[in-house]
Amino acid sequence: MALPSQMPRSGQAPARVMGGGRRAGWKARRRRRIVGVVVLAIVGALAFLFWPGRVSDAQANGAISGDAAAAQQETATMPVGLGRGADPISEAARRSETTPRTTSPGTPGSAPGTPGNPGTTPGSTAAQNPTSTTEPTRTASTPPTTTTNTRESAGNVIEMGSGRSGTTAAPAQRPAEQSAPVRETIAGSDSAGALSNAARAATTRADELLARNRPVEARDVLNRMLHDRNATSADRAEMRARLAQIAQDLTFSARVVPEDTTATMYTIASGDSLARIIARENFDTDFRMLQRLNNITDPARIRPGQRIKALKGPFHVVVHKGAFRLDLYADQTDSAGNRIFLRSFAVGIGELDSETPLGAFRVRQNSKLIDPRWVNPRTGEVFASKDPKNPIGNRWIGIEGIDTQTESLSGYGIHGTIEPQSIGARGSMGCIRMLQADVELIYDMLVPLKSTVLIVE
After folding, report:
1. DSSP class of 258
2. What Cα–Cα distance (Å) separates residue 132 from each residue in 120, 325, 456?
3. Tens of pLDDT along 98-137?
4. Do residues 214 and 329 make contact, with C-beta atoms less than 8 angstroms apart?
């Protein structure tokens, strides 16, 4: 008998016998494929992680992170306000522009008031009073100046020292030359000489009154100390500086304090003009002073009902030749009968061979001129109106003698200059020179026949 394997259909027997085995084999193959896929995935992942290019990228990222950390540390150590990439020089310049600057009133070792000395600002108290010091410095700004020609300023020909004059066409005005404001410096006891006990008491009392908003009473205390016969030069320098600060508020601003006898408020009426107001109310200043105080740019545009400040003149000046200083006073007096001091200005005076005369004068009638034509009495050279080379500038205030010592003198005056370096020195032909901004203010305050000019040694 033949065996089953040798039977004709023996080739199908294994298939039937191995039916369950085919399924097991398929599952085995599937497992192998899954394992293969997993292995390939693992290998791919490992290859991705350890691929050379990937390592370089990581290193590069690490370097960038290091730069960022370094930059953050650098920024943290920079001065506040100076960002990364800013130019330190430009930043320093920017800071200097926004930082208040202190101007030294003089070069150490240089004499104040010397011609050509760049260390002394013309108009500073250092030039006015060589004994004054620079501890704390306060700046008094000059109100804006607006001028209008009148018959009084009808361009006369001036021949200084000759007393002769002629008439020309009324000149157009030259724009006001800008100059540094006069700085009133409080003299400190450490450098200008110790203040007397009386002066210290006066300043203490004045400070108390100012703190209580009583400036008129404070001015009275200081003004009496200024005129005290026992006051020292240091005392007087201190009083002048403090009084000038008070005057900047009481006199040269638009403010009016009811107790102040030097100023008043006026209400403009229909048909008023500034010149009519001055004449009718006897305010005894130039009408331009009303413009200055009230910031009136166009006198023709005042309106009825408008309230303006006016000063009660007349005002007077005392020129101290030795100190190259002009002191301005109100006609009103303090409780001791002394004229009220307002402010000091630096001036230039006559050369040694053309001395500025001593004595009492007053402002001469029809002698206040704006931008006049001038004839040099020494050379005969003529300077036309508005000539920028005109040595006397754009203001002239003629004066005439009123005592036995000066009554025969003529041709002298107070005027501006185109040589600011001559302020605080001898350089004129006997007249009183002032900075342009200063002489414009004095021009607005002095009036003919009433304002006096006392020249002392």
Report:
1. T
2. 13, 12, 20
3. 333 333 333 333 333 333 333 333 333 333 333 333 333 3
4. no
Query: What would the pLDDT profile of 228-260 be if each residue is shown by its tens digit?
Result: 999 999 999 999 999 999 999 999 999 999 999
Exposed/middle/buried for residue 77 (C-beta within 10 Å: 0-12, 13-18, 19+): exposed
Residue identified by tokens 């800071």 is 95
Q: What angle do CA 186, 210, 192 make, to 5 degrees?
A: 15
| Angle between the N-to-C axes of helices 274-281 and 287-294, in degrees from 0 to 180, rounded to the nearest 10 | 110
**Tokens matching residue 437:** 């901004």
Question: Which position has the token pair 């004595």?
Answer: 359
Residue 284 pLDDT greater than 60, yes or no? yes
Tokens, residue 34: 């899954």
Residue that the structure tokens 């006609």 belong to: 331
Tokens 């303006």 map to which residue? Answer: 308
- Number of neighbouring beta carbons within 10 Å of residue 213: 8
- Cβ–Cβ under 8 Å, residues 306 and 293: no
> Which element (helix H / strand E) includes 325?
strand 325-333
- Report d(CA 117, CA 292) in Å as an integer: 32
pLDDT tens digits, one per residue of 2-50: 444 444 444 444 444 344 555 556 677 777 778 877 878 787 777 666 5
Rounded Cα gap, residues 189 and 235, in angstroms: 9
Fold designation for 186-312? Membrane-bound Lytic Murein Transglycosylase D; Chain A (3.10.350)
Query: What type of residue sits at position 73?
Result: Q
Q: How many CA atoms are closer than 13 Å to the CA of 146, on its beta-carbon side?
A: 13
CB atoms within 10 A of CB 311: 24
At what angle are helices 233-250 and 197-211 packed, to 10 degrees?
20
Strands 349-350 and 339-346: unpaired
109 vs 217, which has greater pLDDT? 217
Pairing outcome for strands 413-415 and 432-433: parallel
pLDDT at 158: 53
What is the reported pTM? 0.62
Q: Report how far residue 130's alpha carbon sits from residue 195's, in angstroms, rounded to the nearest whole number.
A: 17
Residue 14 DSSP label:
H
